[in-house]
Amino acid sequence: MAVILIATSFLDACLKSILENHFLGDSTSGRMLGHTGLLGALSARSDLCYVLGLISKGWYNDLRKFAEIRNTVAHHHLQLSFDDEDIAKQCNELSTIELIGMGPEQMTPRTRFTLSVAMLANWLLITALQIKQKLKVTSPRDPKLIRYTTSPPPE
Question: How far is 67 from 60, CA to CA, in rounded Å?
């Protein structure tokens, strides 16, 4: 089930982009977001993005569900498929896809998983780009430390 492992890795990279754009651009941020850092795991990144208000509760819930699906596949000693009862149930619990008006009964678990990943990844990347366009602070002593949410300060 390489598709599950690759898809969740991509979602993890999207969350990393959000946090990289939100954090100060220094070595501490890089170390925290590194593979072995404090924020190197999908669950830690999604938790932080949620508590900082960078992602919605619905996105957060689906990210946790994706991590659960990934862990089911990664830690199982036999090869699983989307037809497996546990995997199908977990895929049917993904809620992002319901925004297009299609419930679990209207698509296969694999289609539901794939479309949910595509939609969520796009939203996460758009969020990362929006954060990047905001005022960046390079140092705590930077006079531009105040973050503006509506428009940049007058020059």
Answer: 11
> For 153, which DSSP code?
P
What distance in Å separates the CA atoms of residue 155 and residue 45, rounded to the nearest whole number? 35
* 81/49 Cα distance (integer angstroms): 30
What pLDDT does residue 141 have?
Answer: 58
CA dihedral 118, 122, 123, 128 (to 10 degrees): 140
Answer whether residue 123 shows pLDDT above 60: yes
Specify the pTM. 0.81
The CA distance from 130 to 21, in Å, is 9
Measured distance CA(57)–CA(33) in Å, rounded:
22
CA proximity to 132, closest of 4, 8, 14, 2: 14
